[in-house]
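Researcher: We plan to redesign the surface later, but first we want a full-length starting point. Tokens attached.
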């Protein structure tokens, strides 16, 4: 505790004392024991489902790793991020909830905060890359002709470097990781913004580069895709039913890609709102019982994607036979220029990109 006090002496000098430097034990749970047990069971279910689901995605992909296409590689990376936070992070919080206090001290708190932010940032940046891929593939058709496996691996290197940089910045002295107000979990030290201008700059940088900017890119990409889909619908309205059905399939697959990003953002945005309010609102004005709900919701994000992958597979299986029937019709159409798949192989690629 004395070590943390020296790390945060600037906070004390500025007059604001965050909750973890006050007289109370920062790692003692501020919730009732019953609430902690419920949260522990909830996280256990989330952790098991996430581990099994994402592990299955990675296992199936490893069987054909030499044949993975660029879009599949990005999908596997998203599963790795989700599996990482489930295996590396969730056991810490589950044990702590059942124990009615954080059990791993300041070192474990910093590790848990770093791992959660690292894998969470990696997931969001991966989905940002996927949204750009979908945007370029649908709105700029020539893009799909040059994208190769090595481009995907370069993109992965950038994603991991980006996540590593921002997750490690707090250890450079410009930020920190600290216990949540309810005591049984750790996160970025949002409360530094209450103490100094330097703390506000740190929090604003994290919010912009690790939430607002990636979210803006995702929204821009899918808005442009929606506009393109509407335009393409008008273009093919005079074609036969089979071509129109192929266009409908492309639109459905794009919606599924949007659903993946939407699920992540819906899970994390409430937590981001509470964090911003903790950083810039009235000090300690967020009720402790209220702050735990967005935290638990955010921890469920890793469970959604494997479920969505199964939805994609089911949709594709239902449309596969119809795609085979439309193959000959699509070959006869010489003026079909929108981004809908031209044969069953292209349809498979589109499904994987989603």
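Model: Full-length starting sequence:
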């Amino acid at each position: 505790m004395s070590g943390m006090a020296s790390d945060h002496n600037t906070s004390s000098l500025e007059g604001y004392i965050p909750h973890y430097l006050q007289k109370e034990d920062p790692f003692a749970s501020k919730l009732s024991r019953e609430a902690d047990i419920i949260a522990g069971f909830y996280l256990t279910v989330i952790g098991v489902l996430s581990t099994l689901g994402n592990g299955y995605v990675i296992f199936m992909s490893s069987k054909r790793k030499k044949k993975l296409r660029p879009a599949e590689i990005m999908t596997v990376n998203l599963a790795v991020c989700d599996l990482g936070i489930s295996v590396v992070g969730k056991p810490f919080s589950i044990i702590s909830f059942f124990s009615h206090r954080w059990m791993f001290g300041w070192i474990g708190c910093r590790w848990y905060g770093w791992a959660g932010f690292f894998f969470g940032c990696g997931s969001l940046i991966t989905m940002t890359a996927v949204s750009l891929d979908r945007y370029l593939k649908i709105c700029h058709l020539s893009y799909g002709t040059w994208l190769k496996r090595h481009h995907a691996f370069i993109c992965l290197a950038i994603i991991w470097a980006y996540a590593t940089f921002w997750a490690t910045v707090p250890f450079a002295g410009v930020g920190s990781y600290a216990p949540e107000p309810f005591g049984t979990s750790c996160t970025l030290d949002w409360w530094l913004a209450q103490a100094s201008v330097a703390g506000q700059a740190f929090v604003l940088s994290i919010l912009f580069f690790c939430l607002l900017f990636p979210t803006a890119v995702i929204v821009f990409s899918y808005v442009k895709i929606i506009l393109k889909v509407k335009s393409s619908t008008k273009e093919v309205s005079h074609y036969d039913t089979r071509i129109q059905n192929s266009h409908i399939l492309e639109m459905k697959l794009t919606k599924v890609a949007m659903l993946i990003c939407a699920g992540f953002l819906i899970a994390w945005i409430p937590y981001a709102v509470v964090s911003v309010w903790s950083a810039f609102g009235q000090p300690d004005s967020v009720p402790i019982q209220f702050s735990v709900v967005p935290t638990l919701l955010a921890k469920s994000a890793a469970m959604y994607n494997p479920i969505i992958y199964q939805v994609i597979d089911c949709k594709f299986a239902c449309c596969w036979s119809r795609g085979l029937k439309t193959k000959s019709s699509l070959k006869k159409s010489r003026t079909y220029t929108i981004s809908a798949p031209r044969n069953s192989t292209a349809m498979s690629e589109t499904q994987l990109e989603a």
